[in-house]
Automatic annotation (TrEMBL):
The gene is gltX. HAMAP family: Glu_tRNA_synth_type1. Belongs to the class-I aminoacyl-tRNA synthetase family. Glutamate--tRNA ligase type 1 subfamily. Transmembrane segments: none annotated. It comes from Postechiella marina. Its EC number is 6.1.1.17. Monomer. This is Glutamate--tRNA ligase. A motif ('HIGH' region) lies at residues 11-21.
Length: 502
C-alpha cells in the first residue's frame, strides 16, 4: 500500500461506547498499525441536544483499557485539530457555500409544517415522500424561487437548510473493500440536508469535510452507514476531492443471530454490552462493563476481532501484535456476526491461565477485604491450585475459601455420602497418622496416608471423602494433600476433629 494510511474512529458522545463501536475502533486500529498508519479519534458532537456529560471521557478511557489507544485526537498530537466537531463549526459553512455556488446544493425554506403536510398527503395516497428531483421545483427553495426572492428571505433571516442536489437519471458506480462493486440509481436518492440555519452542519457534510481536511485515506465504519455511501461519494466529487476507500463492517447480531445486538439483549441474558461500567448522569442507572465484570482486556479484544473477521487459519488466540500482523480487510465478512456470550468467557478463561499467580492474587486480594492481612504469596499458591477451574477473578472465593476459613457447616448431601458407620474411628486413626508424620509435605502425606489405607485394606472412599469434607465442607476442591499442606498440620487436625464432633 503506497498511500499514507490515516483512519479515524468518530463516535458521538451520546452515552457509553457500545461493544459494536469498540469493534469498529479495533478494526480501524489494526488496519492502521498493519500499514504503519495513524489511528485518529474524532468526536462527532454536532447534535448538541443528545450530548451526554462524561461520554467523551468514557470513550477515551474505554479505548485505553482495551489497549487500542488513538494516535491523534483531542488533546493528543493535534496535527489537524480541533477534533471535536462542535469546535469546527466555523469551517463547514464555507464548503456548503461552495456547493451552492457550483450548483450542487441549494437553499430550502420549507417549514416543518409544510413538509409534514406533504408526507401525510403522500401516505394517504400510498406513496413515500422523497424530497428530490421529482418535486423540488414545486417546493419552497432556491431552485423554484427567483434570485431576488432568495436574497430577500436570507436578508430577512428566514429559517433555511442547505440541501444537496442529487442528480437525475445517473448510475453511481461505487466500490467497497468488503462488499465489492455497488451500483446506485440516483433517481431513488433524496436531497439530504447538509447545513442548518442554526450554523451547524449535519453529519453528512461535517463528516466529509473533516475526513478530507484530516487526510483520511480509508473510512472503516459500521454497516448502518452503507446507505449514506452514495451521498458521501457524490459530495467528494462535487467538491473536487479524492474519494477515500470505504469499508463497511458487518453488524454484530444478537446471540440468537436475529437482529442487531442491543443493551436490552445484555440485560435480558446477563452479559455486558459496554467495555466499562457506565453510570447514567441523569438517572444514575448503572450499566455493567466488561472490565468490572472481570474480563481481561486482551480477552475482550481477541473475541471482538473474530466478530466479522477470520484469519483464514485454525488459530483463535491472538495477542494484539499477532492481530495486527494477521488483520486484512479482505477477510472481513459481509454477513452479520453473532455475538456469543459463552465464547468470550472461553477467551477469558484462556487469558486467565496466562496471568501470573501473583498478578491474580493481587487482583483477588483487592476484591476481598477479608484477605487484607493474608500474605499475597499464600493467596497465589491457593490460586495456582484452582485457576484452571476459574473464568473470572470473582470465581476465586468459591474455589478457595477453605484455604482461609475452616468450614462452619457441611454440605448435607456430601455428608450423607461421606460419613458412614465407623467414620469417626477411622478419622481418629488418621489424626494419629498425621501427627506422627514429621515431614508435612504433599509427597510425604500421599505416601503415608495412601500406604496406611492400602496396607489396612480400608478402601480409599472411606478415608478420602470424609477427609475432603472435613477440610472443605463439601466434596469439591483441588487435591486434598495440597489443601493439607497449604493449611498446615495443626489446622488439618483441627478440621478433622471438628468433623468428628459434628
Amino acid at each position: 500500500m503506497t498511500k499514507n494510511v490515516r483512519v479515524r474512529f468518530a463516535p458521538s458522545p451520546t452515552g457509553p461506547l457500545h461493544i459494536g463501536g469498540v469493534r469498529t475502533a479495533l478494526f480501524n486500529y489494526l488496519f492502521a498499525k498493519k500499514h504503519n498508519g495513524t489511528f485518529i479519534l474524532r468526536i462527532e458532537d454536532t447534535d448538541q441536544n443528545r450530548y451526554v456529560e462524561g461520554a467523551e471521557n468514557y470513550i477515551v478511557n474505554a479505548l485505553n483499557w482495551c489497549g487500542i489507544p488513538f494516535d491523534e485526537g483531542v488533546n493528543k498530537n493535534e496535527k489537524f485539530g480541533p477534533y471535536r466537531q462542535s469546535e469546527r463549526k466555523h469551517i463547514y459553512k464555507e464548503y456548503a457555500d461552495k456547493l451552492i455556488a457550483s450548483g450542487n446544493a441549494y437553499y430550502a425554506f420549507d417549514t416543518a409544517e409544510n413538509l409534514d403536510f406533504h408526507r401525510k398527503d403522500h401516505e394517504a395516497k400510498g406513496k413515500t415522500f422523497i424530497y428530490n428531483w421529482h418535486n423540488r421545483l414545486k417546493l419552497n427553495n432556491s431552485l423554484s424561487l427567483s434570485a431576488e426572492e432568495v436574497k430577500a428571505k436570507l436578508d430577512a433571516g428566514d429559517d433555511y437548510v442547505i440541501r444537496f442536489k442529487s442528480p437525475q437519471n445517473e448510475t453511481l458506480h461505487l466500490t467497497d473493500i468488503i462488499r465489492g462493486n455497488i451500483k446506485i440509481d440516483t433517481n431513488i436518492l433524496d436531497d439530504k440536508v447538509l447545513f442548518k440555519s442554526d450554523g451547524m452542519p449535519t453529519y453528512h457534510l461535517a463528516n466529509i469535510v473533516d475526513d478530507h481536511l484530516m487526510e483520511i485515506s480509508h473510512v472503516i465504519r459500521g454497516e448502518e452507514w452503507l446507505p449514506s455511501l452514495a451521498l458521501h461519494f457524490q459530495l467528494y466529487k462535487a467538491l473536487g476531492w479524492d474519494v477515500p476507500e470505504f469499508a463497511h463492517l458487518p453488524l454484530i447480531l444478537k446471540p440468537t443471530g436475529k437482529g442487531k445486538l442491543s443493551k436490552r439483549d445484555g440485560d435480558k441474558l446477563g452479559f455486558p454490552v459496554f467495555p466499562l461500567q457506565w453510570t447514567d448522569p441523569k438517572t444514575n442507572d448503572i450499566s455493567r462493563g466488561y472490565k468490572e465484570d472481570g474480563y481481561f482486556a486482551e480477552a475482550t479484544i481477541n473475541f471482538l476481532a473474530f466478530l466479522g473477521w477470520n484469519p483464514g487459519t485454525e488459530q483463535e488466540i491472538f495477542n494484539i501484535q499477532e492481530l495486527i500482523e494477521a488483520f486484512d480487510l479482505d477477510r472481513v465478512n459481509k454477513a452479520g456476526a453473532r455475538f456469543d456470550p459463552d465464547k468470550i468467557k472461553w477467551f477469558n478463561h484462556h487469558y486467565m491461565q496466562q496471568q501470573s499467580n501473583k498478578t491474580l492474587a493481587d487482583a483477588f486480594k483487592n476484591l476481598k477485604p477479608e484477605l487484607a492481612e493474608i500474605d499475597v504469596n499464600y493467596i497465589a499458591m491457593a490460586i495456582n491450585l484452582i485457576k484452571e477451574r476459574a473464568t473470572f477473578v470473582t470465581d476465586f472465593w468459591d474455589l478457595t475459601h477453605f484455604f482461609f476459613n475452616a468450614p462452619t457447616s457441611y454440605d448435607e448431601k456430601a455428608s450423607k455420602k461421606a460419613i458412614k458407620e465407623g467414620t469417626a474411628e477411622l478419622m481418629t486413626e488418621l489424626i494419629a497418622i498425621i501427627n506422627a508424620n514429621t515431614d508435612f509435605t504433599v509427597e510425604a502425606l500421599q505416601t503415608e496416608i495412601k500406604g496406611w489405607i492400602t496396607n489396612n485394606e480400608i478402601g480409599f472412599g472411606k478415608i478420602m471423602m470424609p477427609l475432603r469434607l472435613a477440610l472443605v465442607g463439601a466434596l469439591q476442591g483441588p487435591d486434598v494433600f495440597d489443601i493439607m499442606y497449604m493449611i498446615g498440620k495443626n489446622e488439618t487436625v483441627k478440621r478433622i476433629e471438628n468433623l468428628i464432633k459434628s
